[in-house]
Amino acid sequence: MGKPLDSKEITKDLLFARQPIFDSKKKLYGFELLYRDNDPNSAVFDDGDKATASLIMNYCGSILEDEVNSYVKIFINLTKSLILSDLFFPLDPKRIVIEILEDTIIDQELIDRIIALKKQGYHFALDDFAFCDSFEPILPLMSYIKVEVLDMPAEKLTEKLARLNQEVLGKLQEKPILLAEKVEDQAVYSQCSKLGFQLFQGYFLERPLPVYGTKIDNNSETAIQILSQLQNPNINLDDLSRSISRDAKLSYQILKIVNSPLCRLPKKVSSLHEAVVFLGLQQVKKWAMAMALAGSGATNKELFMLLLTRARCCELVSSKLRMDDPDSCFTVGLFSGIDAVLLADKKWLLDKLDLTEDINEAILNLKGEKGRILQLVIELEHQDLENIVSLDSAVQKIYYESLEEALKWTQLTFKNL
Question: Which residues have CB under 8 Å from 267's CB, separation 6+?
């Protein structure tokens, strides 16, 4: 499969930028995520929906170099069309704050959607609020109001805040938190603090910082096929996990998403199937939509077929030998060549998934029962039969038959791709 790259040799991808948000004691409260493509200092895009989908996929489904402070609030802009979409909410309501852009047209459809999402636990922020009357209908629904204070005279800001409190906020049982944006110096910071702002963001505190890592360009066609499959009311999780497993990159990305800061499992997963069960049909559907919207790049079909055959063979052998959890043997086989798929160090990649120790040992060192099965399946692929022929004849038969069945299964799986 070729020599894998060490993690230090990987070309760094610009994934996004993040700007810290601090409280009145200058303690980190959260991050605003900002779309970036080629330029770390600015965002240039034609399609807001695609840019947002790419931002979320890069945050949750890529490999970040720096994942510190992962459990604070995450503020992210969503376009009106994405807010209204029933499909595009794979985000954890406990962690996320949805920012409504300053150019959003407020209508009853949007108001009703915000009310429905708030009932699900989501919180909203009004971005760059300019004290316009058109936004007053949604102010009572906001948990945060972000006010750009750059170049706004103190008298004018004081006057506008007084009017807002008197006419709108003062009538609310629960007032939204005021967040001062573009705080550029100590004087403005002190002034905003006196005026009742509780959160602060701007160059005085910290500039947006580019975040680099390894981007996983998934096959958007596979994601679209999964979306199509999910329309079937009779689909089950077994069929779904099999469909996802056709694409090693997509499989890795699903496990990375499950392990992401916005979707952290309470325990280590042992298989792709377990990850899909945890997410559930609706969440997988939403993530597949994000992948289809953001995805690009070609796949190495021959390599995927090899790994899928290996994974299926490991699973079949495990099942026929009546071992516990054949699904985890499928995972072992599928990710045994993930270094060749993603061109990165295997251990480094597996560390990002937080799989069970026996799976890591099987993949990295061919240790344990799962590692032994993987070793024998790989040797069988290569027609290196010395260890195979030393097995009991009944066990030999299991390996040969399993490989034949796996080859047929993989060919059928890829028939229409």
Answer: none
CA atoms within 13 A on the CB side of 254: 37
Residues forming beta bridges with residue 210, ordered by sequence position: 17
Indicate the pTM of the whole model.
0.66
pLDDT tens digits for range 199-236: 999 999 999 988 888 776 655 556 656 755 665 667 78
Q: Calculate the average pLDDT of the chain.
A: 81
Q: Residue 67 — pLDDT band, cuts 50, 70, 90?
A: low
pLDDT in tens, 183-197: 999 999 999 999 999
Phi, psi of 63 (to 5 degrees): -100, 110
Residue environment code for 165-189, b if the CB has 16+ CB neighbours within 10 A, otherwise e: eeebbeeeeebbbbbbbbbeeeebb
B/e letters for 24-63, b = 16+ CB within 10 Å, e = fewer, are eeeeebbbbbbbbbeeeeeeeeeebbebbbbbbbbbbbbb
